[in-house]
Amino acid sequence: MICLSATNVRKSYGSRVALRDASIEIECGSILALLGPNGSGKTTLIKILATSLTKDAGKVTILGYNLDTNENAIRQLLGYVGQDSDRSAYARLSVRENLRFFGALRGLTGRQAELQIERLAEYFDFKEHLDRLHFVLSGGQKQIAIIMRALLTDPPIIFVDEPTKGIDPLAARKIRRFLRRYVEDHRKSALLTSHALSDVEEMSHNVALINLGSTTNCGTVADFKAALGLMAILELPATALTADIANALAQIGVRRMPDGSAGSDWTQFGVEKRGPGPDTILRLLQTHDAAAAYRYRPVTLEDAFIHQFGTLGGRLEV
Amino acid sequence: MAVTSEIDGSADASGANFAELRSPSFFRVVPVTVVKDIRLNLRYMPDLAGRIAEIAIRVLFFWIFANAISIRADYSPLGQAITGRDLVVYFQGALALFVFNNVALSAPVNAVNRDLYNGTLEYLFICPSSRYAYFVGTVAASAIVSLSVFVPVFLILVWSSGTGLIDVVMILCVCLLVLCTIVAFGILIALMAILWRQVGFITSVLAILFEMLSGAYFPISVLPRQLQDLALLLPYTWGYDLIRYYSFRGRWTPLFPVAVEWAALVAFAIVFAWISRVLLKMAEHAAKRAGFNVI
User: Fold this and answer.
1) How confident is the model over B51-66, as pLDDT tens digits?
2) Rounded distance, CA A59 to CA A61, Å?
3) Nearest Cβ partner for B1 among A109, A112, A119
4) Which CATH superfamily groups domain A2-225?
């Protein structure tokens, strides 16, 4: 069952086109990640869906409500976590005071808000921070406070824009797990944007790609990785790589990845699905005295992302 | 975790059924905004101290100024000599409206600036609640803070000038009614802040213009004819006139019959409130077209 459908959404800021033709669908009970490079239109789309921006054209339906005619009803159905958690609550109010105020603006009575705050604080292990002022919280704590605000009315759909931006890895992992668990435990649906592909891989069920304001293929995370057509990635240190090794690898179907060595001391090779197994590759490297340092790992979402949005247009070098 | 999935309509232990949540009413948004704003005011103590000091200095200045001069009968708008005590009475109305004016004009724009600073403006605009009520709440909170200091001082001033209790009550009623009309002006300025961000200077210019035109410092009868007509379009003019009528206990001749002036103030309040509501929607639409993050 589809709970959110956006079709052919267009948006311009003056003469600058932010969204050319964006279409996505979210299945109820799933998390869709919107992936794209900076300036691709991810945040614009999420803001349109959250009713903080108006679209120029297109149709959006959320749980049967049309965005053009039922804006307030849709606002009741969604929770929104924007990018800037550091500056999206009253700095000199405590977490509890912020949540009570925003809960009231979303229609909760004082008692309902208080009960929900306590429950969410327990769920997010956040009780000790409820009465601290927002500005004294750490980045990760602020983000949890903002996520709690989004969940105050127990909305069926949650929009999360860059949930772990500027947050240390430990706090980021905690937030990822909380969100994924919450969505699964409570049968919610979510739309996520993130440049941290570990977020997407850990949290999302489905992925939609967006570039230059247009969405392209959608599918599961596994589909997205499979589209790369690779079984694994081989990484060799640049110092150990010779032309002979590269040629020998190419002959057995292991080819250098476009942008695979950009900014790194390691060069990446893609092992095609019908290519050689790790033993064959190891033997080849041993014959070239290059087996001392190499990495052989599964394809990640980051590989697929770089392949999709890389400067060489996403094709393997032949 | 006890939060259940209420989207199917089942109520949880608290009796909350979030699937049936409705947009909060005007009368729910105003008090929660008042509480929030008063808390915030109390947590920015230097700013609060500055506001209190400003009111105190104004009161002191008016008192000294009024007691330092007197007006001969042939120059007097009352047709009789005006003593320092009369001038205290004359300016006390101006003082009251000045404070109310400051509250109503500045509170909404300060709220917008604070929400832009805190990054809360965008979130406020995706809440299913009345933005108009939110701005009214900010004005009410600012009024409570300012008037909690001003009213006692004002009452002492009025008492010392010999004005009767009923007249004092009437003066405060006029001030409150004028406040209702000025709120609309304040919200209009806040709209400019939503669209253009920095409008503090515009607020100051408007406040000065309103004070000059509407007879805060001198009667409008001394203004050129065209400016007098313009002055009648401002609720302040009617407010000042009524305040002086009650302050001078019948010695002040109002521009129009007192009942007409009261009716005009009520009409101003209704019309301006309607205009500001409409314009608020238009400004919101414009801001959402442009994007809150780019304004």
Assistant:
1) 888 878 877 787 787 7
2) 7
3) A119
4) P-loop containing nucleotide triphosphate hydrolases (3.40.50.300)
